[in-house]
């Protein structure tokens, strides 16, 4: 995602004289950012996400920027005339993959979310949970620049929920943006760069939101890595980390627990790989062997 997506003075209502669902919305979605949207039921969160995904057109105002976007709704239409694998293969081909590559990518993403056993099951016969896995899979298939998730975790089992959190971290680490709504306040706690609340047709930024995890907001991992003095951390690791403290040859990184696997992968797959000295979970800062206690 090379450019911002911007909503400027955006309003949305249904019908010529219908009540305004949203009005005066200003929002910037920058590359590499994770944005959480909150609000009571019926306040317009889903409408906002559909505008961000450009599935709806604003009644007033304008939206600029056209990143390649994928959208996951809370409920995915299950009556499509495909099997799970056939549907994903079809979408892969639509995104420009060869038939062989699309088939392979479709199988891989079903495997990732624990749905490979249902590859040949008609979509109409999938359970709610498995149908939702296919919905997530279709969104990730083309590695979107902007991923929009509207209660996308609903119906997923615990391993799939964790895998989707890792996928979110991967997208932002790669420079993409993610905008999401979820009813669980613990979802990706400490990870969002900004949190907005929909209130009375408007949008308010929560002032206590930030990239650094605060005590009590969720699991936190502390990672110590070493490398030659003067070597810079990989850009994707810097984007994932909520905070970093550096000394010659050593870096202390703080990261939301949901993003720790992706951070470690970025460090260990760098060329040459970084030496991970220690990882401390949930707010327990690991001992730095190079320091004196």
TrEMBL record:
InterPro entries in the record: AAA+_ATPase, ABC_transporter-like_ATP-bd, ABC_Transporter_VariousFunc, P-loop_NTPase
Bias type Basic and acidic residues, positions: 284-293
Gene3D superfamilies to which the protein is assigned, alphabetical: P-loop containing nucleotide triphosphate hydrolases (3.40.50.300)
The entry's keywords: ATP-binding, Nucleotide-binding, Transport
Region entry Disordered, spans: 274-293
Signal peptide range in chain numbering: none
The protein's name: ABC transporter
């Amino acid at each position: 995602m090379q450019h911002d997506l911007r909503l400027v003075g955006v309003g949305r209502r249904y019908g010529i004289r219908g009540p305004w669902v949203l009005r005066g919305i200003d929002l910037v979605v920058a590359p590499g950012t994770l944005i959480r949207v909150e609000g009571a039921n019926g306040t317009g969160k889903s409408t906002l996400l559909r505008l961000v995904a450009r599935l709806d057109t604003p009644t007033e105002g304008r939206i600029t920027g056209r990143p390649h976007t994928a959208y996951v709704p809370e409920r995915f239409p299950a009556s499509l005339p495909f099997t799970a694998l056939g549907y994903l293969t079809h979408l892969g081909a639509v995104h420009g993959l060869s038939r062989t590559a699309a088939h392979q990518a479709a199988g891989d993403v079903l495997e990732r979310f624990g749905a490979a056993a249902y590859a040949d099951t008609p979509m109409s016969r999938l359970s709610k949970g498995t149908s939702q896995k296919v919905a997530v899979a279709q969104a990730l298939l083309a590695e979107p620049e902007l991923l929009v998730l509207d209660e996308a975790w609903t119906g997923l089992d615990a391993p799939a929920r964790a895998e989707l959190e890792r996928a979110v971290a991967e997208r932002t680490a790669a420079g993409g943006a993610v905008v999401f709504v979820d009813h669980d306040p613990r979802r990706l706690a400490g990870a969002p760069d900004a949190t907005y609340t929909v209130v009375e047709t408007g949008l308010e930024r929560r002032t206590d939101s930030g990239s650094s995890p605060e005590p009590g907001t969720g699991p936190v991992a502390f990672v110590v890595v070493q490398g030659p003095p003067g070597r810079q951390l990989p850009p994707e690791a810097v984007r994932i980390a909520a905070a970093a403290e550096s000394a010659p040859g050593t870096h202390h990184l703080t990261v939301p627990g949901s993003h720790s696997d992706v951070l470690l992968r970025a460090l260990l797959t760098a060329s040459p790989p970084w030496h991970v000295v220690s990882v401390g979970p949930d707010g327990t800062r690991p001992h730095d062997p190079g320091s004196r206690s």
